[in-house]
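debug: dumping io for the single-chain case to check the tokenizer round-trip. Nothing else runs in this session.
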Amino acid sequence: MVPLVLLMVVFYFALIRPQQKKSKDHAQMMKNIRSGDKILTSSGIVASVVTVKEKTLTIRSADTKLEIAKSAVAEITERSGSETTES
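debug: decoded output
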């Protein structure tokens, strides 16, 4: 019985907990997206955020303006100039 419990504890710390942390960090990133931020979408589009709505973003990449779901943002590559960076 002890090896089974030990295996479950290892499984939790190796797989479940990191995924929960990643999900929490992504949700926090979604809340902090602002107009002017440069983003990378999960499909590989690099763009600037034009407007932010509750569930969608309007982005501009080159001469194209698109509306995407917030969940499609993979990372914020550059913040808009109004925020100070933390050291």
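debug: round-trip ok. The longest strand covers residues 46-52.
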